[in-house]
UniProtKB/TrEMBL annotation:
Keywords: Cytoplasm, Dioxygenase, Endoplasmic reticulum, Golgi apparatus, Iron, Membrane, Metal-binding, Oxidoreductase, Pyruvate, Repeat. This is 4-hydroxyphenylpyruvate dioxygenase. NCBIfam families: 4HPPD. It is a peripheral membrane protein. The keyword Lipoprotein does not apply. One of its GO terms (cellular component) is cytoplasm. PROSITE patterns: VOC (PS51819). InterPro entries: 4OHPhenylPyrv_dOase, 4OHPhenylPyrv_dOase_C, 4OHPhenylPyrv_dOase_N, Glyas_Bleomycin-R_OHBP_Dase, Glyas_Fos-R_dOase_dom, VOC_core. Its main location: cytoplasm. It comes from Pseudonocardia hydrocarbonoxydans. Fe cation binds at H199, H282, E363. It holds the Pfam family Glyoxalase. Residues 41-171, 196-352 form the VOC domain.
Amino acid sequence: MSIDQTLTGQERLAELDLDQLRRLVGLVEHDTDRDPFPVSGWDAVVWVVGNATQAAAHFRLVWGMELVAYSGPETGNRDHHAYVLRSGAVRFVLQGGVDPDSPLLDHHRRHGDGVVDVALEVPDVDRCVAHARAQGATVVREPHDVSDEHGTVRLAAIATYGRTRHTLVDRSRYTGPYLPGFVARSAPGVPPVFQALDHVVGNVELGQMDRWVDFYHRVMGFTDMAEFVGADIATDYSALMSKVVASGDHRVKFPLNEPAAGRKRSQIDEYLQFHGGPGVQHLALATTDILGAVDTLRARGVEFLPTPDSYYSDPELRARIGEVRVPVEELRSRGILVDRDEDGYLLQIFTRPLGDRPTVFFELIERHGSLGFGIGNFRALFEAIEREQERRGNF
Ligand SMILES: [Fe+2]
């Protein structure tokens, strides 16, 4: 039996050690020998956006990410721009069509700005694909090597919900800045605000959540982390169901949501309509200092969902959360939510949608032992989201 104690290249680049990573994103021990689909960690979150050049500047100058690599017309890629950005162990790739016939532009016309690929680093691409295929997964890209002067990367891709895919990447024989075809590129930046990716949430259609939970169980060997269904996360008007699956050591966590019947349209239905089907709803960015991050991001123009003042004065909540590292007043003044479970507590806050459509958004999360996702906050959060939906006339 081997307990996986290795860091991915991105994590080493972020100068994170395993203890720090464990605290940041809540890792657990895991026996990789018994894992049919071993996953080392996140590789990249790949986006299609309407204007990658401006989005890259936004992620650099607002979200404190560092530009590390680039592909585009100047490097022989006539189809699109792709900017690779990094913050801590998190890698984003922002793609935007250049050629009027680029398939990325068709994708963007339908779905708007969003995530198309949650790429995972794996030690053995072929073994993962063989297992996935045997379990009925759609292999959208067969295992293949790509090489340049920095070495060779082995890649494959499998389909998941909507038009999202998981590219599987073995970069153990590669030293370049991202992938062959990309050149190193840097630009002046601003101080970072987050260090790791905690979880990526998918929204799927009514009645499809269990199908995708089963997909992650069978195809990728993921296990259930937590389950909250129906009434737990319903308000008077709107409801959703959510289950969470995770890779063996919990480095990769995928909550999956589906709409549930409510008196009005749920936020998941709104997402499905405006995204044009299932897709990534939010990405949770782990930070060691959520108070500083929120202050910095607000000063740089980021808008967070407001939290009702009543949330902080509620005696039930005060009793439930107990002692946290700062006075509740510090959380109240920033709208930061807090939740506690048997393992500890977490602090979290959600942004407004990042683009023009009411689809993908970010969460900031600072964990203190809790391995949860803020279940106690769902109701308070959804009520805040519904007030926003109402303002947009979609409720
Ligand atoms: Fe979340």
